[in-house]
Design a protein that fits this description.
There is one protein chain. With about 425 residues, the chain is an alpha/beta fold. The protein has two domains: about 5-40 and about 290-420, Methioning gamme-lyase, C-terminal domain (Aspartate Aminotransferase, domain 1, Alpha-Beta Complex); about 60-280, Type I PLP-dependent aspartate aminotransferase-like (Major domain) (Aspartate Aminotransferase, domain 2, 3-Layer(aba) Sandwich). It contains twelve helices and twelve strands. It has helices at about 5-10, 15-25, 30-50, 70-80, 95-110, 125-130, 160-165, 190-200, 255-265, 280-310, 335-345, 405-420; strands at about 85-90, 115, 145-150, 170-175, 205-210, 230-235, 250, 315, 330, 370-375, 385-390, 395-400. It has a seven-stranded mixed β-sheet, with helices on both faces. It has a five-stranded antiparallel β-sheet with strand order 8-9-12-11-10, with helices on one face. Helix 8 links the parallel strand 4 and strand 5. Bound molecules: pyridoxal-5'-phosphate. Pyridoxal-5'-phosphate binds near residues 97, 125, 176 and 214.
């Protein structure tokens, strides 16, 4: 087997390949631990599917109103059981993660209520949803106010500041698990549990929602296991397993999820309408594959951190840290390096490998963004992709990989592009 030769055919030089193999040798025990978590989570999903007697009838397409859509309803029971919640809303009509979060927030916040983020600024697209940046249709326009407690400089929760921001109008607390486009740490499920317990001690009836994007199946537990009233995410990230072509989910307390369903469709209609349009096979099978797909992506993230830290770039999380999401930030220090890195990721893709990524002004983001993705599903970030806003500290956010081998090739090719341009060196 001429492994080096096939890598060379894909554009990876012998030096870069060898460098990668050296790094990999040190990662064996960590990869074994990732496989253990995937094994546990696979069984968790299987238990939920078996309990709900998933069968071929659940894969049937529905159209129009989608009344009595047993496949759709059963999928929601599967999600609820796998995430240990009372209820779930899992729909192709939820167009993306931002939409899922918008539904969860606008369904459960009324005029006069306040939303609190105790973990600093939220993900870029949420700024317009909340009205931190003026926007048509924001929560702010509807009279919902927003408060924020920033993290301490070391990235930990500022409990006194959080307590000071909770008052009688504080209705919902939003906790973003993943770092998103920031270089703060991602929170572990255990840390989120502590934060929720603290908030509920200050105000027992406050709703705690977790933006779970990128976190699903990274750990054996989810935030819903440690007190979150709602967890929210996108199906073109981890839980869709790469097969879901669209969709989002909201899992949580039945009364809160019910409000979300009325917001998503219409008051009075709720969860009973919404045709599945033939997407059930992809949703079920994607959820089934999600634990192993997430494991592959995690291996890629750890491999990237170990490669790039060795070359002197700051990585968040660093090469040795435990993982709580699939995102790897690499601070490359210049726009030029960001572009080269992304060209490498693009060149490794199964789709659009010949395309050259360039920075552009993407809707919802306030600076230019570069993105590399050769995905089967547009914008899917459980597929191998890299992106980042062109601004200090010029960090690329690398994530995904439907298989570990593809993630590995992407990282090796990103390094190759940097070396070829003289923007990094192996010694
Ligand atoms: C991706 C992401 C979102 C938004 O999801 P989209 O599907 O891109 O709209 C929100 N929050 C976090 C933390 C994310 O990673």
């Amino acid at each position: 087997m001429e492994m080096e030769q096939i890598y060379r055919a894909l554009g990876v030089s012998e030096d870069v390949y060898r460098f990668g193999e050296d790094v990999l040798q040190s990662l064996e025990s960590r990869f074994r631990e990732i496989d253990r978590v995937a094994e546990y989570n696979q069984n968790k999903v299987l238990l939920a599917m078996q309990k709900n007697r998933v069968n071929a009838a659940h894969f049937a397409a529905t159209t129009g109103y989608g009344y009595n859509d047993e496949g759709r309803d059963n999928l929601e029971r599967v999600y609820a059981d796998a995430f240990h919640t009372e209820a779930a809303l899992v729909r192709p009509q939820i167009t993306c993660g931002t939409h899922a979060l918008t539904v969860a927030l606008s369904a459960n916040l009324l005029p006069g209520d306040e939303l609190l983020s105790p973990v600093g600024a939220p993900y870029d697209t949420l700024e317009e949803v909340i009205g931190i940046r003026e926007s048509v249709g924001s929560l702010k326009e509807y009279g919902v106010t927003y408060a924020q407690a920033d993290l301490k400089p070391d990235g930990s929760f500022d409990y006194p500041a959080i307590e000071a921001k909770i008052h009688e109008r504080t209705k919902l607390i939003t906790i973003q698990r993943s770092k998103g486009y920031a270089t703060r740490p991602t929170f572990s499920v255990a840390q989120i549990g502590e934060l929720i317990a603290f908030c509920k001690k200050v105000k027992p009836d406050v709703i705690c929602m977790v933006d779970n994007c990128y976190g699903e199946f990274v750990e054996p537990m989810e935030p819903s296991d440690v007190g979150a009233d709602m967890i929210v995410g996108s199906l073109i990230k981890n839980p869709g397993g790469g097969l879901a072509p669209i969709g989002g989910y909201i899992c949580g307390r039945a009364d809160l999820v019910e409000r979300c369903a009325y917001r998503l469709s219409a008051p009075g209609l709720g969860q009973e309408v919404g045709a599945n349009l033939g997407l059930m096979p992809a949703f079920y099978q994607g959820f089934f594959l999600a634990p192993t797909v997430t494991a592959g992506a995690l291996k890629g993230a750890i491999f990237a951190a170990n490669i790039y830290e060795k070359l002197g770039f700051r990585c968040v999380p660093n090469a040795a840290e435990p993982r709580h999401d699939i995102i790897q930030a690499v601070e490359l220090g210049s726009a030029e390096r960001m572009v080269a890195f992304c060209k490498g990721i693009q060149a490794a893709a199964p789709v659009d490998s010949y395309v050259d990524p360039i920075p552009w002004a993407m809707p919802g983001y306030d600076s230019e963004v570069i993105m590399a993705a050769g995905a089967f599903v547009q914008g899917s970030s459980i597929e191998l992709s890299a992106d980042g806003p062109i601004r200090e500290p010029y960090a690329v956010y690398f994530q995904g990989g439907l298989t570990w081998y593809h993630a590995k090739l992407g990282i090796l090719l990103s390094l190759q592009k940097l070396i070829d341009k003289g923007l990094a060196s192996l010694s």
